């Protein structure tokens, strides 16, 4: 009851004309940045940070939170329309969303993404307000063994969203892991796989790999098959709203995606990528079990679940930031710096010392979700008209924005060269039927898995049994074994 009263007081502060305007500006700017490939919400927050110092703290953080939410939301637009995610968290959405767009169902894909983001974000905001203490306790339970088990679980779960060939999936995962370990080893300081290049000492960033694999690779792929494929402008946009059948198909995936995404926001370094791929894999397995799977042809469940998981993770990521002073993503790390610039230290005392600001910020999350839905849902047909732009202009623009996004991350020409090298690798993988999802998962989770494995072995003085000392890790491994055994059994039955 106390949380409810504090939240109502937060709404009173967040709904002042100035704070409401700042929230609107934040979600609009975040959405615009999220649409551009390679430019993430973390970059948008970082660029806006100096400007917010002229504002009072409550308004500044409401605006930054709006940018965070809008950036996560906007990444799905180009993922669906152009197979080019604006954010790495929208990678899973691209797989089925783009197929829906090519099938003339772009507005339906955009609408289910918008509503899924709203559902996931709203439920997550409720969880943040009323269950924050439990989520903080859950985050504190994770140590090296739990992180490693989580990474292994994600590696195996990737098999749910790849091609039918396990060999090709493992090859793709191996390539991703290889790209992820390039650079200086953080424990020993030894340079690995840099080929003598100073530009590779910092490693290959996730931005470079994401943009290269999904943007440049798509441009090269389309340019090669352009003469033998339908022009995008010849695709009919279709109906602008979700019909009853689409709503029935999306409702449970929205809820399941939200449930998967909630705990990951509270886990340091958890990120939105893991739950989005896990939710995509779950929906694919459930559809195959029902015997009416549209996956591979544009399944609306493959858009609904990842987007709900994405936004639920985003909201919950503020729990460890506010309650522990622990950022769980690049964007929350920038927001942590903003708190420190204002002379505040996030942690258990923040709710007591700066309660008015914290509850206004939490209330603004609900407002931002509503604004995002109001701003984006009516424009689904308008976004779908991007498909009518001549293909050569459209993909030339993608290449330009992708190049700018890769360069803007570190202002390094070497990253532009890398993004095109990765794009060429992605093109070759596509041509040979090798799936791309495991490559991305390997790059994102490979360094985490390696670091946490070494930490766990150091704590256990070389005893591998330390990896099974945690109940959470044991549960993850058990679920993994059951899932793998079930998948093998289903595959054997399908062959007989």
From TrEMBL:
Keywords tagged on the record: Membrane, Transmembrane, Transmembrane helix
Protein's name according to its UniProt entry: Tripartite tricarboxylate transporter permease
UniProt domain DUF112: residue ranges: 20-440
Membrane-crossing segments per the record: 60-82, 109-135, 147-163, 170-191, 203-224, 357-380, 392-421, 470-490
Pfam name, any one: TctA
Alphabetized InterPro entries for the sequence: DUF112_TM
């Amino acid at each position: 009851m106390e949380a409810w009263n504090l939240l109502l007081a937060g709404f009173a502060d967040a709904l002042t004309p100035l704070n409401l305007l700042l929230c609107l500006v934040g979600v609009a700017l975040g959405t615009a940045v999220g649409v551009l490939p390679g430019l993430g919400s973390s970059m948008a927050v970082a660029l806006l940070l100096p400007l917010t110092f002229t504002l009072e703290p409550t308004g500044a953080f409401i605006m930054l939170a709006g940018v965070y939410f809008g950036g996560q939301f906007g990444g799905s637009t180009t993922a669906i329309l152009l197979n080019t995610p604006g954010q790495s968290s929208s990678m899973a959405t691209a797989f089925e969303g783009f197929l829906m767009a090519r099938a003339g169902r772009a507005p339906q894909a955009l609408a289910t993404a918008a509503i899924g983001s709203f559902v996931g974000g709203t439920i997550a905001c409720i969880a943040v307000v009323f269950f924050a203490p439990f989520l903080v306790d859950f985050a504190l339970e994770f140590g090296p063994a739990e992180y490693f088990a989580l990474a292994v679980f994600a590696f195996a779960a990737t098999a749910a969203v790849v091609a039918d060939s396990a060999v090709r999936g493992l090859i793709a995962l191996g390539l991703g892991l290889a790209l992820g370990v390039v650079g200086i080893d953080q424990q020993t300081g030894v340079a690995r796989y840099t080929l003598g290049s100073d530009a590779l000492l910092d490693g290959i960033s996730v931005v470079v790999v994401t943009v290269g694999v999904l943007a440049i690779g798509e441009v090269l792929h389309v340019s090669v098959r352009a003469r033998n494929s339908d022009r995008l402008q010849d695709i009919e946009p279709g109906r602008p709203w979700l019909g009853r059948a689409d709503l029935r198909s999306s409702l449970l995936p929205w809820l399941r995606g939200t449930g998967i995404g909630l705990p990951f926001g509270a886990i340091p370094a958890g990120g939105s990528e893991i739950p989005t791929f896990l939710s995509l894999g779950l929906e694919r397995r459930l559809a195959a079990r029902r015997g009416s799977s549209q996956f591979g042809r544009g399944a609306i469940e493959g858009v609904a679940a990842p987007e709900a998981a994405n936004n639920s993770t985003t909201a919950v990521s503020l729990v460890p930031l506010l309650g522990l002073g622990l950022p769980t993503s690049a964007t929350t790390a920038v927001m942590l710096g903003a708190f420190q610039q204002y002379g505040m230290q996030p942690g258990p005392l923040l709710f007591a010392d700066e309660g008015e600001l914290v509850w206004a910020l939490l209330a603004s999350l609900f407002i931002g979700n509503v604004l995002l839905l109001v701003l984006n849902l009516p424009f689904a047909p308008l976004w779908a008209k991007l498909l009518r732009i001549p293909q050569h202009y459209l993909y030339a623009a993608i290449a330009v924005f992708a190049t700018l996004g890769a360069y803007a991350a570190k202002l390094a020409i070497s990253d532009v060269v890398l993004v095109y090298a990765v794009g060429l690798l992605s093109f070759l993988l596509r041509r040979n039927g090798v799936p791309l999802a495991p490559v991305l998962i390997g790059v994102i989770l490979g360094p985490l898995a390696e670091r946490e494995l070494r930490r766990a072995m150091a704590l256990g003085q070389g005893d591998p049994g330390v990896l099974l000392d945690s109940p959470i890790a044991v549960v993850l491994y058990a679920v993994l074994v059951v899932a793998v055994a079930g998948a093998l059994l289903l595959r054997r039955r399908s062959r007989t």
